[in-house]
């Protein structure tokens, strides 16, 4: 079965979305296809992007002058845009290459009219370029949105080592924002096999950030050689940071002893592609 043919997807509902004003005042959407919001209304869309994804990932890579980022999936683009906002605001001398799969082409096309927070005002030309061409490039930033199924996009990158606009090295991603809809409603983007593909594209010191702390998420990552940490950022629910190489612990990063977790919960298991065929 090809992932995009999974019967859990409902393309006929894909255009049906409702607007939500999240708790930090930033606007997000609710998907009728997945029956879930794009961001946690409680944590706030912009706050969640910055606190759970951008700040910890950049903190753990502050020595780098060039970063390649996999943003799963583009959605409203908050994670990509919050990344650019953070880098510009702090004048970070880092070159960024962001690759982001997304199968909702109409959504990406609509984003030039989206009601983004004022923090993204200076990003307007970038938002417009991505919306129109699914691509943006200047001297510091290169952004590619790959329209289509994320599973196929990763397989293509693994097999071919290139995208439409770039040649990639085998293990190229320093940062992965794993921000799909939840494992319950979008399981094929949380399976052991999915994380194996991600792992094979990651550098040894890669940092994967995700809001899901579910046992199945932790197992799927751990079974692919990731070390795991709980992460507690201000004003957000606890999230997860994974890295093939164990990172230095800071006060708000708590290493998870997965062998102990497995002893305590011997029935805990990762999601598998075969569960959904
Ligand atoms: C939770 S939203 C992402 C939110 C996004 N990170 C943001 O900051 O706005 C999940 C996105 O995944 C997309 N999606 C779900 N399954 C997909 C798949 N198999 N391939 C590509 N995109 C997918 C949905 O269309 C949706 O836009």
Outline the secondary-structure elements:
Elements: E1 17-21, E2 27-31, E3 36-37, H1 45-59, E4 66-72, H2 78-89, E5 95-102, H3 105-110, H4 124-133, E6 135-137, E7 141-147, H5 150-160, E8 173-178, H6 192-201, E9 202-210, H7 215-222, E10 227-231, E11 239-243, E12 253-255, H8 258-264
Parallel strand pairs: 4-5, 4-8, 5-7, 8-9
Antiparallel strand pairs: 1-2, 2-3, 6-7, 9-11, 10-11, 10-12
Brief rundown of the structure:
This is MnmC-like methyltransferase domain-containing protein. With 277 residues, the protein is α/β, with parallel strands linked by helices. The chain has helices at 45-59, 78-89, 105-110, 124-133, 150-160, 192-201, 215-222, 258-264; strands at residues 17-21, 27-31, 36-37, 66-72, 95-102, 135-137, 141-147, 173-178, 202-210, 227-231, 239-243, 253-255.
Fold and architecture overview:
It comes from Sulfurovum indicum. Residues 132-241 form the MnmC-like methyltransferase domain. The protein is of the alpha/beta class and 277 residues long. It has a single domain, classed as Rossmann fold. Helices cover 29% and strands 23% of the residues. The protein has helices at residues 45-59, 78-89, 105-110, 124-133, 150-160, 192-201, 215-222, 258-264, and strands at residues 17-21, 27-31, 36-37, 66-72, 95-102, 135-137, 141-147, 173-178, 202-210, 227-231, 239-243, 253-255. Strand 8 (173-178), helix 6 (192-201) and strand 9 (202-210) form a beta-alpha-beta unit. Helix 1 crosses helix 2 (78-89), helix 5 crosses helix 6 and helix 6 (192-201) packs across helix 7 (215-222). Residues 3, 38, 49, 73, 75-79, 101-104, 107, 149-151, 179-181, 186, 189 line the site of S-adenosylmethionine (SAM).
